[in-house]
Amino acid sequence: MMKETESRKKILVIRFSSIGDIILTTPVFRYLKNIFPNSEIHFLTREEYSIILQNNPYINRIISFNTKKGFSGLRMLKHNLEEEKYHAVFDLHGSLRSRYLTFLLNSDEIRRIKKYYLKRFLLVKAKINFFRNRGNSGSNRTFSVVEKYLRTCGFSETSGNFEQIKLELFPLSQDLKNADLFWKKFAGKSLRLAVAPGAKHFTKRWPAEYYGELAALLYKKYKLKTVFVGGPDEVQTVNEICKIADPKENFTVNLAGKLSLMETASIISHCSLFISNDSALMHVASAFQRFQIAIFGSTVRELGFFPLNPRSRILEKSIACRPCSHIGRPECPQRHFDCMREIKPTDVMNEFSDCMWVFKQAMKKDSGKKRK
Predict the structure, then answer these.
(1) Structural domains of the chain, with CATH
(2) Is residue 108 a contact partner of residue 3, using CB atoms and an 8 Å limit?
């Protein structure tokens, strides 16, 4: 790692995709800026994801790459990077594209993430788990992808220190104000419940009918209204969920596809409780440390993509075929989909009830501090 006296040099961090992975890079920029406060930090990502880290105070410049430009665009990007004369380059993607860009790049130091392909293969294919390793502290715990990113940048073991690995997002102030106004109008003084039923891959999605049943149960028992959030791909699914839960449209609203990513993040930042699958929006909720319940199907936390949030709960079932993939599949390879179907709406309700009790206790504690 570069010396303290070299802290004025340029640093390049590379991570092209996807939304969740990019959110997981945020502790890296905070770490680098704290260690080298005078350094100029650049972040290279795909154009469609550049909005995620805009407004981040630890990043001096975001470099966007348009994949539609193909290899000619990549070649031009490589030329531009060579002209920047970076002192250190940290490749947090390790893809063919990022390897090409960093090959023979004029930099004093180039580090690339270690992906542990063999361990991942053994866990997914043979169900042999080597990811729970003992660290220097002697603890036996699951390591987050964030810690792998930090190690790539020369950071020693975090020993599970949350302040070192916590995620951060910085929406625009106007988006935050709009989100707060929306919640006040929709939920009043009630708890603010946001639910994200989507995920990129089928095996990471809890069934739509279960989400519909859950929303109905929550309203029946707690009179809680539900705000559904997601991207354009989830609009139809959320419409189906709302019809199942709330045919008269009294206690649900579908915001999927109606907001930008950072507007959605602002909505989540102002919610009281958040429920989702193992998805990008799960990491958004973690960045704001919302009380959250994450439903895991074909993936497991040992792969490193669990919610980095002390207020999070993970719901999962011990099914012999889990995990069947490290990112999810378009269909269940065993055809039964028990990893998700065995998690019933009543299971989430029970977890929710306990989570809400903890939330109310925290609110009382905060109110007591304000009165003092």
Answers:
(1) 8-115+161-165 (3.40.50.2000), 173-371 (3.40.50.2000)
(2) no
